[in-house]
Amino acid sequence: MKLQRKNRRALALGALAVSGALALTACGSDDTGGNGGGTQTAAAGNIDCGDASGQLQASGSSAQKNAVDAWVKQYTAACKSVQVNYNPTGSGAGITAFLQGQTAFAGSDSALDSKEVADSKKVCKGGQAIDLPMVGGPIAVGYNVPGVDSLVLDSATLAKIFDSKITNWNDEAIKKLNPDAKLPNLKIQAFHRSDESGTTDNFTKYLAAAAPNDWKYEPGKSWEAKGGQSASGSSGLAQQVTQTAGAISYFELSYAKGGMKTVKLDTGSGTPVEATLDNATKAIAAAKRVGTGKDMALELDYATKAEGAYPITLVTYEIVCDKGNKAETLPAVKSFLGYMASEEGQGVLTDADYAPMPDEIITEVRETIKGLS
Asked: pLDDT tens digits, residue range 11-66?
């Protein structure tokens, strides 16, 4: 119980696609404190601004967008000489922009692959890009089926739905999992991401691991299955589910708002598992570290049958150079990432439906950020 609470206090993830750059600055009349650089005090606590100043450009994961909004609001209220611009373009686009030297760091719901690490050495002079796990949480499967307030699906049925093999809500496979539900004769409208997405990468990794006989596509940031409909960003998918009868899609829990229903997963552990922060924490706490050196990439068990563990879970990484960061942005990078990883920064996550990182992980992240050069 104590360990679970500790992990809850330390785990996370997220959500929301907005087109175009978001210039996220101090929060106007709610701001407190002085101006200029130096260590200042925010209303919510102490944030070390150090020598940070100027504009900090970043882009990537839309999953963590809501978390970044909260962080930027607090940070820029304290560090008024810094403007943070985070563009939630999706993990793939974020990594590309970072590797082209357009941004100081990127957010990605998938760890860098070997080619991306090799390419990063052109940007990180004398170093390379590393993955820093910062936020986590469940990927919820939201649905809009009139008259159905509770829905259980398993990995095989989900795979067939998203591969257009099951096309109606009153299909026998769905009936078998939901004997008490009044399933309508209604066409299934399955929506997937149109943009490259770490959320898609994690969702398809789950399908491939948990339903290998029914999902024959290679997991990745781009959607490979045929059929279905698409929308841009997690917010685009959530909007489609909200407004389309018969819709089903996947996105971070923080997008499942306004009374939206989410699927309970039959993992074979007994009781179907809900998409909650606690249940995602149980899955993330069991992740294996596969990164070497300063890289902290994690490997999740998507086919877990552990009691109460929600298997469709993702970790969002901040991708940054370990060495060779641009001198003009290095102070702001260390200051802002340091705040995100701080106890105060991690503490804002649960209110936004994200899970903070476990203590043992985030402690190492903090030390790595201090050593960036």
From this structure: 433 333 333 333 333 323 222 233 333 333 334 458 999 999 999 999 999 889 98
CA–CA gap between residue 300 and residue 82 (Å, rounded)? 35
Q: Which of 262, 281, 300 is the last residue of a domain?
A: 281
HSE of 206, CA atoms in CB hemisphere, 13 A: 27
Residue pLDDT, tens place only, 198-218: 899 999 999 999 999 999 999
289 in a structural domain: no
Give the C-alpha separation, 196 to 242, whole Å: 22
264 & 349 share domain: no
Closest CA to 356 of 71, 66, 9, 4: 9
Residue 219 lies in a domain: yes
Q: Tokens 């701080």 appear where?
A: 342
139: which residues sit within 8 A by CB, 6+ positions away?
Answer: 199, 202, 203, 206, 250, 251, 252, 253, 275, 312, 313, 314
* Residue 232: CATH number of its domain: 3.40.190.10
Q: Are residues 158 and 102 in the same domain?
A: no
Question: Is 194 a domain residue?
Answer: yes
Hunting for tokens 């910062």 — which residue is that? 134
